[in-house]
Amino acid sequence: MKLGQQALEALQAEITGRLNPGEDLVVAGEIGISGTLVLISREKEKLRKYFSESFLYMSEDTLQKCKVSREDDFWMDKRISALYFTKEGGILSGLWKMAEASGVGLDVDLRKIPIRQETIEVCERLDVDPYKLESEGTVLLGTGQGNALVRELDARGIHAAVIGHTDKGNDRLLHSGEITRYLERPRFHHSGKEKKHGKA
């Protein structure tokens, strides 16, 4: 179902620039950092059954340092055609919003998306989908020079990866090994705000 004009304009206001067909999609920073920190804080008693106190403490400290800053002047680079600072709904929501706002299709390999082992382990224990986990501190961008930008981001100490590309079609495909599925539209409250995602 297509968004109405008003909803589309509101969505486009969240995105800096627009994606173009044939561009690389890049994720800068590991996904799910902010959501993992919330889970560790909220579910610490449950997580203590599986992890040591030192693991939980070190994970919180490490994850805090992994967040990407919005203030980095790198995001002004002219090679970046579209930019979105992910938040509620996680990386999958960010991908859908960017594609919908730009009117392009996507082809993404989930296995290429940067993610910390701490996030994977915490999400597995709590039965949470890490790709839908709140992801403040991660940047999703479109560019015609994905590999070059990734190298420069890595040189700045920011883990980044090309995770796929855009195309002229309407399909938004997610691959994980031999499994391929369509990217789903995020669920929204009647207020227009996105519903928080948790379990897969």
Automatic annotation (TrEMBL):
Residue span, PurM-like C-terminal domain: 21-170
InterPro entries the record matches: HypE, PurM-like_C_dom, PurM-like_C_sf
SUPFAM superfamilies: PurM C-terminal domain-like (SSF56042)
Residues in the signal sequence: none
Protein name: Hydrogenase maturation factor
Species of provenance: Blautia intestinalis
